[in-house]
């Protein structure tokens, strides 16, 4: 998507009159409130009116007002129904359902054009969705069981990890075809392109290894073993290091990525830096936008570990909730949000204060999280209940006191939702 098509800063900061009712969901019976929200927009208004009788009124303040030509959607892959659900985040409603390939799993948006890419694990294909029409523009063949997809920063290539064929597809997004298939380790679970576009890092879950590929020559540069069930991967904003979660153990692998023009000979080749001890079953890595810290969701330990990226040291672990599964950090680097799969909740952790500041009840089995473009909303994908919980990152009580995290509404998805992506643009 072109930069000029995104919401301009003035509109992002236009936190003026609400376009919808708001009432704090923690008043009274949380689950009754949640069930009411699941009835849809009409149920939301009814719930708001009900709670208003308890707390003395609803607030219509502090809700963004968007330009009339602005659109923002969230797309949810539904593995059990071979569809993608489209959520309209401006009007807060389900906007439609798109038929795609079998068992859609991963999803990614193009940062330079209005397109969304869906990896169909059961169909060995990639569905390209036109974001403005919400229709499949073309289907591109991949290999067996595509499990992840990532798009480079210039929006020219997509990289697809094919778990069933032990390779990575390189797709030219302009020509709409695969231009290379690179052999990697067994059952690759995640493929990430570095911000500078030079390096592709692939986590091979089946072989417990990591493959490092030159993105220009499409040749294997290095391989590192010893990371059982290698899964989620993040690369620092300066493209200097990669961190890989070793889900089958209690560690995170740290790799120094080759820097051809470095004055230090050791940095001119990819090299293993360390294995960092974290909690049990690390499944997800949440990188601060400034790249200074990574927060590891330890599914088996009910904790989040904090890694200082510059020193590659673990600063500590914090109890966060039952079976943390996913995490995201706010754009201002102040708040970590974590989905607790077994607790049906999303936790808000203040990074600066080093403490848990709120826990919000959501749907059943929350996993992947995503912000709206302006960060005003946080979307939690509820895998077991088949819906998306929409949270306000900041709201206010009737007395004007700020609240970090509150449930706003719940929107329906499809059967067995797997992943979520968000994009905003001007029509």
Notable characteristics:
427 residues, mainly beta, four-stranded antiparallel sheet, 3 helices, 54% strand, globular, disordered N terminus
Commentary on this structure:
This protein is mainly beta. It is built from 3 helices and 34 strands. Strand 18 and strand 19 form a beta hairpin. The longest helix is centred in the N-terminal third of the chain and has 15 residues. The radius of gyration is 21 Å and the shape is globular. It starts with 8 loop residues before the first helix and ends with a strand. About 50% of the residues are buried.
Biggest sheet strand line-up: 5-4-3-34
What portion of residues is helical?
under 10%
The low-confidence runs, each spanning 5 or more residues with pLDDT under 50, are 1-60
Q: Got a strand count?
A: 34
The description of the largest β-sheet is: 4 strands, antiparallel
Number of helices: 3
Structural class: mainly beta
How far is the first residue's CA from the last residue's CA?
12 Å
Q: Give the CA-based shape.
A: globular
Mean pLDDT value: 88
- Radius of gyration over all CA atoms, rounded: 21 Å
Strand content: over 45%
Summarize the structure.
The protein is 6% helix and 54% strand. It is mainly beta.
